[in-house]
């Protein structure tokens, strides 16, 4: 306590000075100034630099040495003879990455929400070892995405554990990660396995917040399990479902870590997604096209903003609907 008193006594002249010159109403800015400085340095300043890169060209790294090109980078990305034929696009890899990302998002998010919902419903029941199973499903969330990808890569590689099992049963080995169809399937599977526990936890919290009296009343009225699910559980769980849906979609659009370690975007461009395209264009290729990478990242940011606004609107609509009831 003496140390704390000594510490605050040292800060007292500083706060008195701020109170005298800023006033009580503006004194709060003095407390948030360190956080604003950190946000400005590591969030707002990079966004500004990214905007500069997006409207400039060349291969120079320093923004002041790059020539102004306006919207040329966006024109290069979105120039296509026929948007239904990706080979006619000037940057066909960019559009293939978008196509893969959209395909991945629809499949992964749909399965993620469905499996998370089913898992949450099961874990909300009185089953043997319920606490243990809750921990088992949440454990992959605690692992680093790189660690998750390395574990599955060890299992799926040509000389991995899965093929060793097939050979032991006199079956031919399968190219899990070098066949385009299998590679895409495993990117979806590994992503769901790694993150499903987080969304299950959100839905489980929503299920536990539903009053038990409603289920008791439904049981007294002899309502079927399906009717109870569709008339009580799902309507009251809708705010949590919307949060899970939008968060899963945002994460699916930004997928990178697991796929980069697992397949590296291959075979070919079968598992190349938009974030990996940005990384390859700006950093991995021999010629670093920072402008194109910045323009692609702004396109991704715009899409994420749209998803966030959709979440806010859906959440408000769901809350208004519940109040109306």
Strand content: under 5%
Secondary-structure-derived class = mainly alpha
Q: Biggest sheet, in brief? A: none
Number of helices: 13
Radius of gyration: 26 Å
Q: Secondary-structure element order, as H and E?
A: HHHHHHHHHHHHH
What is the straight-line distance between the termini?
53 Å
Low-pLDDT stretches are none
What percent of residues adopt helix (DSSP H or I)?
A: over 70%
Average pLDDT confidence is 87
By DSSP, the count of extended strands is: 0
Label the overall shape. Answer: globular
Summarize the structure in words.
By secondary structure, the chain is an all-alpha fold. Helices cover about 75% and strands about 0% of the residues. It is built from 13 helices and no strands. The protein has helices at about 1-20, 30-55, 70-80, 90-125, 130-140, 145-155, 160-170, 180-210, 210-220, 225-255, 255-260, 275-285, 290-325. Helix 2 (about 30-55) crosses helix 13, helix 3 crosses helix 13 and helix 10 runs antiparallel to helix 13. The chain is globular and about 70 Å long. The model has no long low-confidence stretch (mean pLDDT about 85).
How do the helices and strands line up, and which of them pair or pack?
Elements: H1 2-22, H2 28-54, H3 72-78, H4 92-123, H5 130-142, H6 145-156, H7 161-168, H8 180-209, H9 212-220, H10 225-253, H11 257-262, H12 274-284, H13 290-324
Helix pairs in contact: 2-13, 3-13, 4-8, 4-10, 4-12, 5-8, 8-10, 10-13, 12-13
Main attributes of the structure:
0% strand; 325 residues; 74% helix
């Amino acid at each position: 306590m003496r140390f704390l008193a000594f510490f605050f006594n040292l800060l007292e002249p500083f706060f008195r000075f701020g109170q005298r010159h800023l006033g009580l109403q503006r004194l709060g800015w003095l407390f948030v100034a360190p956080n604003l400085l950190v946000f400005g340095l590591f969030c707002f300043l990079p966004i500004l630099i990214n905007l500069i890169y997006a409207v400039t060209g060349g291969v120079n790294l320093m923004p002041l040495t790059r020539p102004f090109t306006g919207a040329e980078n966006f024109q290069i990305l979105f120039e296509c003879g026929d948007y239904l034929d990706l080979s006619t696009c000037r940057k066909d890899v960019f559009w293939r990455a978008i196509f893969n990302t959209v395909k991945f998002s629809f499949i992964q998010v749909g399965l993620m929400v469905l499996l998370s919902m089913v898992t949450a419903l099961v874990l909300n029941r009185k089953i043997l070892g319920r606490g243990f199973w809750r921990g088992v499903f949440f454990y992959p969330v605690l692992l680093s995405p790189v660690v998750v990808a390395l574990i599955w890569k060890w299992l799926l590689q040509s000389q991995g554990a899965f093929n060793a099992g097939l050979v032991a049963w006199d079956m031919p080995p399968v190219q899990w990660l070098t066949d385009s169809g299998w590679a895409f399937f495993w990117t979806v599977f590994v992503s769901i396995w790694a993150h499903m526990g987080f969304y299950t936890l959100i839905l489980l919290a929503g299920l536990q917040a539903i009053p038990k009296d409603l289920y008791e009343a439904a049981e007294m009225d002899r309502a079927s399990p399906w009717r109870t699910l569709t008339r009580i559980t799902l309507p009251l769980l809708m705010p949590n479902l919307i949060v899970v849906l939008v968060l899963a979609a945002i994460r699916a659009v930004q997928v990178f870590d697991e796929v980069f370690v697992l397949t590296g975007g291959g075979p070919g461009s079968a598992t190349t997604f938009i974030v990996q395209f940005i990384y390859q264009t700006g950093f991995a290729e021999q010629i670093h096209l920072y402008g194109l990478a910045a323009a692609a990242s702004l396109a991704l940011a715009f899409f994420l903003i749209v998803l966030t606004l959709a979440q806010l609107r859906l959440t408000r609509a769901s809350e208004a609907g519940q109040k109306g009831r």
